[in-house]
């Protein structure tokens, strides 16, 4: 299913490496009705973390590699088989959406049905998921830890009850998700040899003094890859409970990331404050001490947006889509927003930016 045919062979070529951080193999499918004439109504995109792997839409009916090495390293038969699978899903997609529209008592207008499926892997654990949404609102889901269907809204309750009553179908879906997790673990071995290596964060701690005699400290980590990073404030050498908000991890144009967190202290404090950073690129934790008097500009100026614009990121890819098809842009934004919200709720902060 999906990447399994291409990864079975690759799994024999690269020894499995232990997962030292969080990774995700994710497939996004979007179905649209009522859109502009001659615009695609079916999209399927796959990602390894933030790296795009494939793209398929109903207008071209072609599966295109988004990572150049995909085409070179994969058996040519995979592309034909996967294209046939997506072509079949495309043909039944309208009936799927029309069924959901009926359940939602919607018969006119523009509507979307979205599917997010795949597996998150971390050290010694894996988590398979299959989630759907109607017009950006959660509809139905199942995961390998719950092992039963969950109705995310009242209109989906009948569907969830019917599927839970069908034990055979439920077990088939769980096996399907197990395949995703197997693919993710095998792909990890392949990706470690193929994808860009990790980049260390450049960490600075500076201050901004305020009129009320308080001081805001900023810890800014920049230029790191992959995106997952842990940042914690320390007081007198001891870790505090003040940590990085994952929403403050932002992409740079050159595929790297940056993150910032702040802490308010009194100007009279004699405590020593430092920023603790943990990242997969670092052999040991990086600790940067607050050097009093190192001033920082206001928060809106902290983020460096003047880096090389030639790099590709997910934001850049979406930008290309905007330039080509505005309608596709709107659908994509809805999918990304739904994806991030679901990850935040289901996995906690650790998976928000994968």
UniProtKB/TrEMBL annotation:
Leader peptide range in chain numbering: 1-20
InterPro entries on file: Ig-like_dom (IPR007110), Ig-like_dom_sf (IPR036179), Ig-like_fold (IPR013783), Ig/MHC_CS (IPR003006), Ig_C1-set (IPR003597), MHC_class-I_related (IPR050208), MHC_I-like_Ag-recog (IPR011161), MHC_I-like_Ag-recog_sf (IPR037055)
Regions that span the bilayer: 314-338
Cross-referenced Gene3D superfamilies: Immunoglobulins, MHC class I-like antigen recognition-like
Keywords: Glycoprotein, Membrane, Signal, Transmembrane, Transmembrane helix
Chain ranges of the Ig-like domain: 201-288
Highest taxon of the lineage: Eukaryota
Gene Ontology terms: biological process: immune response
Example of a GO cellular component annotation carried by this entry: extracellular space
Keyword Transmembrane helix: yes
The UniProt record lists the keyword tRNA-binding: no
Coiled-coil regions listed: none
Protein family membership: Belongs to the MHC class I family.
PANTHER family registered for this protein in UniProt: MHC CLASS I-RELATED, SHKT DOMAIN-CONTAINING PROTEIN
Entry protein name: Major histocompatibility complex class I-related gene protein-like isoform X1
């Amino acid at each position: 299913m999906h990447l399994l045919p291409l990864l079975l062979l690759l799994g024999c070529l690269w020894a499995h490496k232990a997962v030292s951080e969080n990774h995700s193999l994710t497939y996004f499918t979007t179905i649209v009705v009522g859109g502009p004439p001659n615009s695609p109504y079916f999209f399927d995109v796959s990602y390894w973390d933030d790296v795009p792997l494939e793209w398929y839409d109903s207008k071209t009916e072609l599966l295109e590699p988004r990572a150049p090495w995909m085409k070179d390293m994969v058996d040519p038969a995979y592309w034909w088989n996967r294209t046939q699978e997506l072509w079949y899903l495309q043909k039944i997609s309208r009936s799927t959406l029309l069924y959901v529209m009926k359940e939602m008592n919607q018969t006119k207008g523009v509507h979307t049905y979205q599917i997010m499926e795949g597996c998150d892997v971390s050290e010694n654990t894996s988590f398979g998921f299959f989630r759907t949404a109607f017009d950006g609102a959660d509809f139905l889901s199942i995961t390998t830890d719950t092992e039963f269907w969950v109705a995310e809204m009242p209109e989906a309750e009948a569907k969830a009850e019917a599927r839970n009553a069908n034990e055979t179908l439920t077990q088939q879906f769980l096996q399907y998700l197990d395949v995703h997790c197997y693919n993710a673990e095998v792909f990890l071995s392949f990706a470690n040899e193929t994808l860009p290596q990790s980049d260390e964060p450049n960490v600075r701690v500076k201050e901004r003094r305020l009129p009320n005699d308080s001081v805001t400290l900023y810890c800014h980590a920049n230029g790191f890859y992959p995106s997952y990073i842990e940042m914690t404030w320390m007081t007198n050498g001891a870790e505090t409970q003040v940590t990085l908000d994952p929403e403050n991890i932002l992409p740079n144009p050159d595929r790297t990331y940056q993150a910032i967190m702040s802490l308010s202290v009194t100007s009279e404090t004699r405590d020593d404050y430092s920023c603790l950073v943990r990242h997969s690129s670092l052999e040991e934790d990086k600790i940067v001490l607050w050097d009093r008097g190192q001033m920082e500009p206001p928060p809106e100026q902290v983020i460096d947006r003047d880096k090389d614009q030639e790099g590709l990121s997910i934001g850049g890819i979406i930008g290309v889509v905007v330039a080509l098809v505005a309608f596709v842009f709107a659908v994509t934004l809805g999918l990304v927003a739904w994806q991030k919200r679901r990850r935040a709720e289901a996995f906690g902060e650790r998976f928000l930016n994968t």
